[in-house]
């Protein structure tokens, strides 16, 4: 089990009430009580378009509103589920901890809230985490409904979840081993660099062009802060984006959230089965 007390605090002498890791331990204890399982093996954070994966990964043994778990709030984005599930991964004897939504940075609850699910997963015993999102694509060949592996990221939020002088190496943040496992399931999966903007407004065409110059292939409003916190906690990270729309300036039509949700629903079965097959192999 990951030692969430020492992961990134720099000290174990702080009063528990002042540390985000203590809150994560409290949340993990609540999840263990509600699920009847002391330890989970892998966590999934489901972004736009990925909700059906929870039904396909395996049999749900327990489900409850995440707002009932310390440190979590109700889902704030249309198209996201506010449930936490404990799922038996089919034919493996392992358990997945599935978060049906995430806290976005633009909600204004602070970076600790954004990465609370990741730290809770580590405190619950998970050794790997799959972070998914719906995003805008910069490559014209990636039509809406295309899943793409995240190979690296550009964090444009101007913040970090890591507190104090804790210098975490992010060289192989998005596990090359797990990306290879994903390609065993679907050899045709592309991969690219994901850039996170603060949101909640969509990016301007000029900002999308800037992201492309910096090396981004995908743009969105989540994931990078969670991935950093996951590495800090010792989790192996797989990132998968669903291109729900072409980014501003790539597409000739204006962007709208209801279209993002619709694209996610249209791709739900394919993405859910893909993710279920990947999780079964991890």
UniProtKB/TrEMBL annotation:
<feature type="binding site">
    <location>
        <position position="203"/>
    </location>
    <ligand>
        <name>a purine D-ribonucleoside</name>
    </ligand>
</feature>
<feature type="binding site">
    <location>
        <position position="245"/>
    </location>
    <ligand>
        <name>a purine D-ribonucleoside</name>
    </ligand>
</feature>
<feature type="binding site">
    <location>
        <position position="134"/>
    </location>
    <ligand>
        <name>phosphate</name>
    </ligand>
</feature>
<dbReference type="GO" id="GO:0004731">
    <property type="term" value="F:purine-nucleoside phosphorylase activity"/>
</dbReference>
<dbReference type="InterPro" id="IPR011268">
    <property type="entry name" value="Purine_phosphorylase"/>
</dbReference>
<keyword id="KW-0808">Transferase</keyword>
<dbReference type="InterPro" id="IPR035994">
    <property type="entry name" value="Nucleoside_phosphorylase_sf"/>
</dbReference>
<comment type="subunit">
    <text>Homotrimer.</text>
</comment>
<feature type="binding site">
    <location>
        <position position="80"/>
    </location>
    <ligand>
        <name>phosphate</name>
    </ligand>
</feature>
<dbReference type="InterPro" id="IPR000845">
    <property type="entry name" value="Nucleoside_phosphorylase_d"/>
</dbReference>
<dbReference type="Pfam" id="PF01048">
    <property type="entry name" value="PNP_UDP_1"/>
</dbReference>
<feature type="binding site">
    <location>
        <position position="222"/>
    </location>
    <ligand>
        <name>phosphate</name>
    </ligand>
</feature>
<dbReference type="InterPro" id="IPR011269">
    <property type="entry name" value="PUNP"/>
</dbReference>
<comment type="function">
    <text>The purine nucleoside phosphorylases catalyze the phosphorolytic breakdown of the N-glycosidic bond in the beta-(deoxy)ribonucleoside molecules, with the formation of the corresponding free purine bases and pentose-1-phosphate. Cleaves guanosine, inosine, 2'-deoxyguanosine and 2'-deoxyinosine.</text>
</comment>
<feature type="binding site">
    <location>
        <position position="48"/>
    </location>
    <ligand>
        <name>phosphate</name>
    </ligand>
</feature>
<comment type="pathway">
    <text>Purine metabolism; purine nucleoside salvage.</text>
</comment>
<protein>
    <recommendedName>
        <fullName>Purine nucleoside phosphorylase</fullName>
        <ecNumber>2.4.2.1</ecNumber>
    </recommendedName>
</protein>
<comment type="similarity">
    <text>Belongs to the PNP/MTAP phosphorylase family.</text>
</comment>
<feature type="binding site">
    <location>
        <begin position="102"/>
        <end position="104"/>
    </location>
    <ligand>
        <name>phosphate</name>
    </ligand>
</feature>
<dbReference type="GO" id="GO:0009116">
    <property type="term" value="P:nucleoside metabolic process"/>
</dbReference>
<keyword id="KW-0328">Glycosyltransferase</keyword>
<feature type="domain" description="Nucleoside phosphorylase">
    <location>
        <begin position="41"/>
        <end position="279"/>
    </location>
</feature>
<dbReference type="GO" id="GO:0005737">
    <property type="term" value="C:cytoplasm"/>
</dbReference>
């Amino acid at each position: 089990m990951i030692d969430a007390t020492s992961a990134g605090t720099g000290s174990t002498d702080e009063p528990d009430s002042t540390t985000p890791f203590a809150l994560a331990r409290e949340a993990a204890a609540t999840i263990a009580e509600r699920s009847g399982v002391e330890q989970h093996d892998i966590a999934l954070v489901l972004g736009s378009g990925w909700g059906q994966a929870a039904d396909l990964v395996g049999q749900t043994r327990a489900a409850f509103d995440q707002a009932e778990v310390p440190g979590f709030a109700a889902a704030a984005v249309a198209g996201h589920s506010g449930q936490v599930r404990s799922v038996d991964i089919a034919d493996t004897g392992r358990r997945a901890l599935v978060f049906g939504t995430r806290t976005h940075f633009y909600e204004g609850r602070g970076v600790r809230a954004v990465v609370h699910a990741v730290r809770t997963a580590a405190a619950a015993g998970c050794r790997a985490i799959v972070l998914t999102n719906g995003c805008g694509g910069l490559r014209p060949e990636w039509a809406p409904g295309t899943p793409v592996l995240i190979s690296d990221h550009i964090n444009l939020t101007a913040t970090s979840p890591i507190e104090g002088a804790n210098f975490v190496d992010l060289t192989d943040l998005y596990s090359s081993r797990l990306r290879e496992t994903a390609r065993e399931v679907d050899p045709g999966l592309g991969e690219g660099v994901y850039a996170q903007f603060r949101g909640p407004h969509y990016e301007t065409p000029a900002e999308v062009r800037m992201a492309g110059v910096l090396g981004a292939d995908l743009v969105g409003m989540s994931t990078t802060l969670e991935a950093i916190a996951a590495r800090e906690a010792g989790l192996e990270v797989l990132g998968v984006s669903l291109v729900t729309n072409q980014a501003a300036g790539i597409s000739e039509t204006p962007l709208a959230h209801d279209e993002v949700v619709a694209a996610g629903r249209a791709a739900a079965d394919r993405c859910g089965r893909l993710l279920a097959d990947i999780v079964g192999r991890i």
